[in-house]
Amino acid sequence: MTQELKDKYIQRINEASPLQLTIINYELLLANILDGRKAAPRSAECTAALDKARECLATLFTTLDMNIEFSKDLANLYLYVNKCIIHAGMRRTDDEKNVMLDDAAKILSELKTAWQTLAADENLLAKMAEGEQTYAGLTYGKDGKLEEYQDFDPNKGYKA
Question: For residues 127 and 130, what is the distance between their CA atoms, to the nearest angstrom?
């Protein structure tokens, strides 16, 4: 990674929200995997790039709240990606190494895209932050036909 690119990342990190920091971490992780893919197997450059990738992955792992089921699923994916990176570092040929790194990069790219989609939908983020609950279902209208119903009242119709 060039110094110019590092400087751009430093500026982005200084101005980033927690969600944007997660996305930046994915970008750095993928960049290090790409650097490892370009380097010769078991070379110092490859080892350094894969070590940096594992550091980024460790940072992502520490942000997980294991009380949330989704975090447990992410933790399993991160463990698998870590295994791919470790095994890639031990391979002797480019083909063997790159198969492992490509598998890790595919998973991480899809996760990064999901986080970017989440960041782009500010309304969804606001609702998540507020904890707004919506109760939805079907009811019968006056004419006997089914109609959709949404209730934003947390009391579900009961007055406290």
Answer: 5
Beta-bridged to residue 150, according to DSSP, are 136
- 104-131, pLDDT tens digit by residue? 999 999 999 999 998 888 666 666 666 5
What are the residues facing 148 on neighbouring strands? 138
Eight-state DSSP code of residue 69: H
| 103: exposed, middle or buried (Cβ count in 10 Å: 0-12, 13-18, 19+) | middle
The third-level CATH classification (topology) of the domain covering 3-132 is Four Helix Bundle (Hemerythrin (Met), subunit A) (1.20.120)
**pLDDT average, residue stretch 55-61:** 96
Region 34-61: mean pLDDT is 96
